């Protein structure tokens, strides 16, 4: 990844271990706190603590200086070598870091014979780094829990017998047997059986889903009954593996706020060194000079920022929201307008036919209208087309194959069926709408939430088909919560204005928050206009038909009905069916931003006061070390609050 020249020279590195490195081995994911501390780290802390105590006692006893120097040198060399290695690497790369500045402070303390002070500073730094590592591990725990959730083996049915094989050997087409309480090791389709499955680890929803023969089951689910599953995707191709890859990529990514934190940390260190030099020149007080360097606690922001992003991404994943890059989390926290497409986002995306109004009152006119419409929709994947086909099949109608079809997004489909030219789509113009007024039950009398689909045969209106898409449970509450955050809300739909107004009223939207009669390109244009007006926009859609609008927004959020993150469009993917997950994700992003900003402001304030007091001789080296470690720990713990708790 390329970086600009300033960024290569500026960043201050604080943690001994890369905070965004790979998660710990599975066995360590949920161990008690004492077991999470590495033995070598604990040994170094104990060694330096004993050394500091010994130096203090030896000084009281009047031990010769050369003895203290010998003891101190050995203990510092053994206890602080990780700090020295990190500082040496930073020095070679011409990069200022807290390790380098603290090593300078320790060295300065030893030069003036303050061995006890040097050892105490080293002790505080080692303890702070252990605390930092533990907080980072807490942020990784959600991902580690996902990684260790799948079973190691699967029971494959071969020649009528079950054989246990490693899940790495699973392949599409194999049939696996699942017992009650079993974890699903791969994506598949139910071949035999019926059961409730728990998808909470993927979607964040607690209620189980009932599956029967032919229904898909994603990896990572827990079945509450016996099932036979035909594998469709396994290993790295499974939805569960792709979810893990997406979360890991987001946790490993560097958002713009990371670079800002690095630059701020470097500036603080440079300021501390400059102020220390000025203090030495003006006061000739080496103790005050060392205290200034020690007081600079930039690690709180340099380490706390990536921890806040890591923990927030993990918390979002726990609720079924998968963020593909840390930068998207930062962008989401800054949006002021949330634009939602109606279909598949505020509604279930599974419309059904609720009425037929043929132009002719002849017997069989409804069946004829439905039959021709279903034939025209035969080759389309549009939800309305599928609803029309499903109703025709329910009536047992013989659906002819179309001779040709042409689908135009946002307008409908045209086809040649049995020599007749059939078009199925929404009323598009005033002329089209007036043509419906002569039908039985005019379009103005549509049922609440229903959409009129116009059917034209050989240029004449043959009738309308009424299609309704149910609102998702919780959509109105979700919009209310988003508005309570002070965000503007806008609903986009291709429905007629009257239909959109009725749906908007159910959702608590005002007429000014509704845009109706839109084509896909119109939605993209609205997003572009909002951004041009200075708004920061999040676009929420189904991830398929809304791809242009999702790409045009500052943040594209795909509210999918499945779990395949890689195939969904958008910067953020909500895999559950609960609309409230959108409000929760926005809340988490905004909270992360508040925490990071609080850490920034707190670091600047504490360091300014502490360095000023140290320069004036009001803060000794040990007190400065306490302030440094205390503020750093406070800011890191503040970021750690964002991490999700252990799953029960």
From TrEMBL:
Localization of this protein: Cell membrane
Membrane topology of the entry: Multi-pass membrane protein
Protein name per Swiss-Prot or TrEMBL: Copper-translocating P-type ATPase
Entry keywords, A to Z: ATP-binding, Cell membrane, Membrane, Metal-binding, Nucleotide-binding, Transmembrane, Transmembrane helix
Biased composition (Basic and acidic residues): 1-19
Presence of the UniProt keyword Plastid in the record: no
Keyword Cell inner membrane recorded: no
């Amino acid at each position: 990844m390329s970086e600009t020249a300033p960024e290569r020279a500026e960043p201050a590195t604080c943690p001994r271990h890369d905070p965004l490195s790979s998660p710990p081995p599975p066995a360590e994911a949920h161990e008690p706190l004492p077991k999470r501390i590495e033995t070598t780290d604990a040994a170094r802390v104990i060694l330096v603590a004993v050394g500091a105590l010994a130096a203090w006692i030896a000084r009281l006893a009047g031990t010769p200086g050369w003895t203290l120097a010998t003891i101190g040198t050995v203990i510092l060399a053994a206890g602080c070598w990780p700090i020295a290695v990190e500082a040496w690497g930073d020095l070679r790369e011409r990069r200022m870091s807290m390790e380098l500045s603290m090593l300078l402070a320790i060295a300065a303390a030893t030069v003036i014979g303050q061995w006890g002070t040097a050892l105490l500073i080293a002790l505080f730094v080692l303890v702070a780094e252990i605390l930092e590592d533990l907080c980072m591990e807490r942020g990784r725990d959600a991902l580690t829990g996902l990684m260790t959730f799948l079973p190691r083996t699967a029971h494959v049915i071969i020649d009528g017998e079950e054989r246990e094989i490693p899940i790495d050997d699973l392949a599409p087409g194999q049939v696996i047997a699942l017992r009650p309480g079993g974890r699903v090791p791969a994506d598949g389709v139910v071949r035999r059986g019926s059961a409730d499955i728990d998808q909470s680890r993927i979607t964040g929803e607690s209620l189980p889903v009932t599956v029967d023969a032919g229904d898909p089951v994603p990896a990572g689910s827990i079945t509450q009954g016996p099932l036979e599953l035909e594998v469709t995707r396994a290993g790295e191709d499974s939805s569960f593996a792709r979810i893990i890859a997406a979360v890991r990529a987001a946790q490993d990514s560097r958002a713009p706020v990371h670079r800002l934190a690095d630059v701020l940390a470097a500036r603080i260190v440079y300021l501390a060194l400059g102020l220390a030099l000025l203090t030495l020149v003006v006061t000739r007080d080496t103790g005050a000079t060392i205290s200034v360097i020690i007081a600079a606690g930039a690690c709180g922001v340099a380490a706390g920022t990536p921890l806040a992003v890591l923990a927030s991404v993990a918390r979002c994943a726990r609720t079924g929201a998968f963020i593909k890059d840390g930068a998207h989390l930062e962008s989401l926290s800054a949006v002021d307008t949330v634009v939602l497409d109606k279909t598949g986002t505020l509604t279930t995306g599974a419309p059904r036919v609720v009425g037929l109004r043929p132009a002719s009152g002849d017997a069989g006119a409804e069946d004829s209208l439905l039959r021709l419409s279903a034939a025209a929709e035969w080759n389309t994947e549009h939800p309305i087309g599928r609803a029309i086909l499903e109703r025709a099949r329910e009536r047992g109608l013989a659906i002819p194959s179309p001779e040709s079809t042409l689908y135009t997004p946002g307008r409908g489909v045209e086809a040649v069926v049995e020599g007749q030219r059939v078009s199925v789509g929404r009323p598009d113009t005033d002329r089209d709408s007036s043509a419906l007024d002569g039908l039985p039950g005019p379009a103005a009398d549509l049922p609440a939430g229903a959409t009129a689909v116009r059917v034209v045969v050989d240029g004449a209106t043959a009738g309308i088909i009424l299609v309704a898409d149910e609102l998702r449970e919780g959509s109105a509450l979700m919009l209310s919560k988003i508005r309570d955050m002070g965000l503007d809300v806008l609903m986009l739909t291709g429905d007629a204005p009257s239909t959109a107004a009725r749906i908007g009223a159910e959702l608590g939207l005002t007429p000014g928050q509704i845009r109706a009669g839109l084509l896909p390109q119109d939605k993209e244009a609205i997003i572009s206009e909002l951004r041009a007006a200075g708004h920061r926009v999040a676009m929420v859609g189904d991830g398929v038909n809304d791809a242009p609008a999702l790409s045009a927004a500052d943040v594209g959020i795909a509210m999918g009905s499945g779990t395949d993150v890689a195939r969904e469009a958008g910067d953020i993917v909500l895999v559950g069916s609960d609309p409230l997950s959108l409000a929760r994700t926005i809340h988490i992003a905004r909270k992360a931003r508040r925490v990071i900003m609080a850490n920034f402001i707190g670091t600047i304030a504490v360091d300014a006061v502490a360095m000023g007091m140290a320069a004036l001789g009001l803060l000794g080296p040990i007190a400065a070390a306490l302030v440094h470690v205390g503020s750093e720990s406070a800011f890191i713990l503040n970021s750690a609050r964002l991490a999700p708790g252990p799953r029960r």
